[in-house]
Every structure is written in structure tokens, then in C-alpha cells.
Automatic annotation (TrEMBL):
Belongs to the DENND6 family. It comes from Gallus gallus. This is DENN domain containing 6A. GO terms for molecular function: guanyl-nucleotide exchange factor activity. InterPro entries: DENND6 (IPR024224), Tripartite_DENN (IPR037516). Transmembrane segments: none annotated. Residues 39-477 form the UDENN domain. It comes from the Eukaryota. Residues 1-23 are annotated as: Disordered.
């Protein structure tokens, strides 16, 4: 479906919104609105004689390197004879040196009079992880595109270029070729499955064609159904950033399962790489399949039988069959040994020697089994599963949140005349000591080696990404508190007691503070910023005329 790719800096900025507000005050240029949602739309063609090629890129000015085009070509079609010809959708990611990009691929076969079989894929390239939204868009536009071709594609892109920006928390109406979609852009503070949806259709909403309950969530139960006896172990593996391979019969099942795995630790951000659909032609193929070093922290979704041999040294492999919700309760299967996985024809299951840290929660399994027996709707099953994962993740992360909050200096330590104080150092030993009285046992009834799970997690990319995000958030809070402390001082009186050189230095530092607050989006009240601007102007006006002219020209006071 659609997903975002890590740039040189690592994971999707953990704890941050996937979108940013457009620069305030700058006039919009042609395609600016389009670029806020999509990088481009591609059409990839394949025929038996000529192979595959990117036939169309729209808007025409969109840039893709030759390497990126090659990746898109191979990722836009099945990597094996999986029998998935026909209309299907799946998602893939590819690496870009300039940053993260997401690709949502709609693969449709199209007969041509001159060739025995001619296939085409319509691909949306985006940095946004709005899988469900882009899937809906493709359902609307793909069938007509293959009938009307490029003129229709241009009209689609023109519609997208009229969309408002994807500001987190906003409810938007998005028109696309005569259909209006109503949706809400999630924020990083939203909990899984709890995004408020405006279901009430008022008179003003009479033109709304559809309301999307989510823009980014997948059908968890459908994805985990083949292996739901092992969901708790899979949660641990994803939490710890362990190398995982999903072997599936089709790109659609591969990509949806990988996306489900990544989302199961939400609201914690998965901070390693993940490839919902990965092929033998991928430019990172050698990097991920080498045996000269340990497998990297990545989740791969594959369909080609060749991977059963190439990746047999990976420690954890999930083999899934066709995603069909069974009418009967699935039989419980034991975790299988890796040596038993020979080909992609092996039986579905989890192949690993991993021993979970936590005791198995039998209640969630019984609850899901009962749902299958009672033919509970898959949406309800997914909601149960999502709530289970949410509660498990929150029980795990709350003790860390509580300890990290204690690293924040007290507000009384913040002096307007000194640099903001530094956060105290994270001590693994000190954190472990807090678990005895304030550990996960306060919110979870699960028993097991929680200490061992935390020790392992503290070495993982997910902890590193989470802690960096919390560090940034708390550092910005300290900067904001420092600004407030400055505003509460009588700065004009201070300047009268000091030399002109010291006063000019103060003015320049205060101006830099204002620039920093705007640049880094510090959590500062608008009134505080206005008050600081007033202080700066009052200090400047108390200086000699020549200094006033110079300081007023160096920036807006």
C-alpha cells in the first residue's frame, strides 16, 4: 500500500507528525498543494518482449533518478508466478537519498491487441503513510484511467492540486473526479483506533460522497489471522526491532502483513526499516541478504520462492497463506524450527527459535477464537486486537515515560541570565530500580521477565528513536520555559544598568531566540512571543539613534 521510506537519518521521525504545515505567509505556487500530498504519479508498463518501463510521470517536472525508476519498475509487478493477475493493490517502499518516500501501487493487467499480454501499473508516490486514503483514491481513478489514459491522469492531478494541506488534526473534504472524501488527518498523539471520525452528515455535507474512518490503519485481524496464536510473540519481536521476514503468496498479502506488524506497537513508532514488498531486483537486495554479517533490523515482505533459500539464515520468518477469514476456528500450531522451512510451500506458521520474555496471554486468543465461532465482523475483531496491542504497548512504555520525565530539570532551576539547563543523563540502572514499585505490573496482569524485555529493548533502534524524540520534546520545552523566564524580567531596566555593548549583545540574543522559536516550532504561547518582541523594541528605542538604526535593520524587532 503506501509507506514512507527512511532517509540517511533513520526512521520516520519518531513521535512526530508525518506532515508539516506549509510555510506561513508564502504564496502558493502551481503544484505546491499537490506536492503536499504526492511526489508524483507513475504509469509502469510491462510486456513479454520489452520488459518493464516507466511510461508516464506526472506532473512532468517531477524528478526520479534512474535507480529510483528501476526500483519502481520491478516493485510495481509481482516478483513471482503468484497467480495474482487481475486488479490488485499493494504497497512498497524504496530508499531515496533525499528523504522518505512512499509508494502506493495499483497493479492492473491490461490486454493489448498487438501483444499477447500487456500489463500496466498505476503508482502513487508519496511521503505520507496514508495507506487507506491512497487505496481509496486508486479505487476511484484506476479503472477510468485505463480507459481514458493521460488526459484523465492530468485531471486527477489537477484535483489533488486543489486539496487543502494535510494539517494534523484537521477534518478535510477532498474532491477527486466527482467524488468528495471526508476524512481527518491524524496527529502523533492519536491512539490507534481512536481517531475521531465525523460521522454526522449535516446539511452542509450533502455533497460528501464517502467518509473515511481512517487514512492509515490496516485490517489487523485479517492480517494476523493466519498466525494469531503467536501475536504476543510477534509484538515482542517488532518491539525489539528483530529482523523479520514475511513470506506470502502475493504482494498484497505481503505488504498488508508487514504494515500490520509495524502498527502493532503503536503509539510507539517503529524506528527500523521495513519493506512491505521486497523483490530480488531491489537495489538493497545484496545489503539485506548477505551472510557476511548479522541480518539488519528490518521487516521484509517477500513472495519469490528464491527468498526461502536466500533468507534462511534470518532468525525469524513468518509464513502466511491466503488471507481468507476462516469459518472454523484455526487450529493452534506450534512455533516451528527454522531448519524446517525449506521452501515457500512450507506450511503457514512462525519459524523461529526465539523464546518470549512474557508469558502467553491466553485470554486474547480465546476472545478472538470466540469471535470467529460467533462470526463476529472482522472490524470488531480488529478493534479488539488493536486495543490489546495498545494496552500492552502502553503498559510497557509508561514506566519509561515516567522515568524520562524525572530527567527534566525543575522550573526553579531555569534562570533567564543563564543558558537553559541540560536534561539529566538516562541511567539504565536507575531506570531498572524504578520498575519494582512503578513497573508494568501496575497496568498489566501479564507475568514474565519484564526486566529482560526492557534490557533488550534499551539496545534496540525503537528505544533510540523514542528516546531521541522525547529528548527533543523536553529540550524544546526547556527552551520555551527559558523564553518565558526572559519575558517575565524587566529587560529595559536591566539594559539601563549595563553597557551599550552588553545591551546590543542581549538584543541580538533575544532576536535569535525569536527565530529559534519560529524555526523549531517551540511550544511557546503567542502572547509570550509578542511580549518578547515588545521588550526588544523598548530596549532598542532606549539606545542612541545610530544604534537604533543598525539594530532595527538587522531584523524585525
Amino acid at each position: 500500500m503506501a509507506l514512507w521510506e527512511r532517509g540517511a537519518g533513520g526512521a520516520a521521525e519518531a513521535g512526530e507528525d508525518a506532515t508539516e504545515e506549509p510555510e506561513r505567509g508564502l504564496p502558493l505556487l502551481p503544484w505546491d498543494r499537490f506536492s503536499a500530498w504526492l511526489h508524483c504519479v507513475c504509469v509502469v508498463g510491462f510486456d513479454l518482449e520489452l520488459g518493464q518501463a516507466v511510461e508516464v510521470i506526472y506532473p512532468p517536472h517531477s524528478k526520479l533518478t534512474d535507480k529510483e525508476k528501476t526500483n519502481i519498475c520491478y516493485l510495481s509487478f509481482p516478483d513471482s508466478n503468484s497467480g495474482c493477475l487481475g486488479d490488485t493493490q499493494f504497497c512498497f517502499r524504496f530508499r531515496r537519498s533525499s528523504g522518505r518516500k512512499a509508494s502506493l501501487c495499483c497493479f492492473l493487467d491490461h490486454l493489448d491487441r498487438d501483444l499477447p499480454v500487456y500489463l500496466k501499473s498505476l503508482v502513487l508516490i508519496s511521503k505520507l503513510p496514508y495507506i487507506h486514503l491512497f487505496r481509496t483514491v486508486l479505487k476511484q481513478i484506476a479503472p477510468e484511467y485505463f480507459e481514458k489514459s493521460e488526459a484523465f491522469l492530468e485531471a486527477v492531478c489537477s484535483d489533488v492540486d486543489r486539496w487543502p494541506p494535510p494539517v494534523p488534526g484537521e477534518v478535510l473534504h477532498l474532491p477527486i473526479m466527482g467524488v468528495v472524501m471526508k476524512l481527518r488527518i491524524p496527529t502523533y498523539r492519536d491512539k490507534p483506533g481512536t481517531t475521531p471520525v465525523v460521522q454526522n452528515m449535516h446539511q452542509a455535507d450533502a455533497q460528501i460522497s464517502m467518509t473515511l474512518p481512517t487514512v492509515h490503519e490496516v485490517d489487523l485481524f485479517r492480517c494476523f489471522c493466519p498466525v494469531f496464536f503467536h501475536i504476543q510473540m510477534l509484538w515482542e519481536l517488532v518491539l525489539l526491532g528483530e529482523p523479520l521476514v514475511v513470506m506470502a503468496p502475493s504482494p498484497a498479502e505481503s505488504s498488508e502483513t508487514v504494515l500490520a506488524l509495524v502498527s502493532c506497537i503503536s503509539p510507539l513508532k517503529y524506528c527500523s526499516d521495513f519493506r512491505p514488498y521486497f523483490t530480488i531486483h531491489d537495489s538493497e537486495f545484496k545489503e539485506y541478504t548477505t551472510r557476511t554479517q548479522a541480518p539488519p533490523s528490518v521487516i521484509l515482505g517477500v513472495t519469490n520462492p528464491f527468498f526461502a533459500k536466500t533468507l534462511q539464515h534470518w532468525p525469524h520468518i513468518i509464513r502466511i497463506g491466503d488471507m481468507k477469514l476462516p469459518g472454523d476456528v484455526p487450529k493452534q500450531v506450534k512455533v516451528k524450527k527454522l531448519k524446517n522451512l525449506k521452501t515457500l510451500d512450507s506450511k503457514p506458521g512462525v519459524y523461529t527459535s526465539y523464546k518470549p520474555y512474557l508469558n502467553k496471554d491466553e485470554e486474547i486468543v480465546k476472545q478472538l477464537q470466540k469471535g470467529v465461532q460467533q462470526k463476529r465482523p472482522t472490524e470488531a475483531q480488529s478493534a479488539i486486537l488493536r486495543r490489546y496491542f495498545l494496552e500492552l504497548t502502553e503498559s510497557f512504555i509508561i514506566p519509561l515515560e515516567r522515568y524520562v520525565a524525572s530527567l527534566m530539570p525543575l522550573q526553579k532551576c531555569i534562570s533567564p541570565w543563564k543558558s537553559p539547563p541540560q536534561l539529566r543523563h538516562f541511567s539504565q540502572d536507575d531506570f531498572m530500580k524504578t520498575l519494582e514499585k512503578a513497573g508494568p505490573q501496575l497496568t498489566s496482569g501479564l507475568k514474565g521477565d519484564w526486566i529482560g524485555l526492557y534490557r533488550h529493548f534499551l539496545k534496540s533502534p525503537n528505544f533510540d528513536g523514542w528516546f531521541r524524540s522525547r529528548q527533543k520534546e523536553m529540550t524544546q520545552k526547556l527552551e520555551a520555559l527559558h523564553l518565558e523566564a526572559l519575558c517575565n524580567e524587566n529587560l529595559v531596566f536591566w539594559s539601563q544598568k549595563h553597557t551599550e555593548v552588553e545591551t546590543v549583545d542581549l538584543v541580538l540574543k533575544l532576536k535569535n531566540k525569536l527565530l529559534q522559536a519560529d524555526r523549531e516550532h517551540l511550544p511557546v504561547k503567542t502572547d509570550t512571543l509578542k511580549k518578547l518582541q515588545t521588550h526588544i523594541r523598548d530596549i532598542i528605542l532606549a539606545l542612541p539613534d545610530d544604534l537604533q538604526d543598525i539594530l532595527l535593520k538587522t531584523g524585525t524587532a
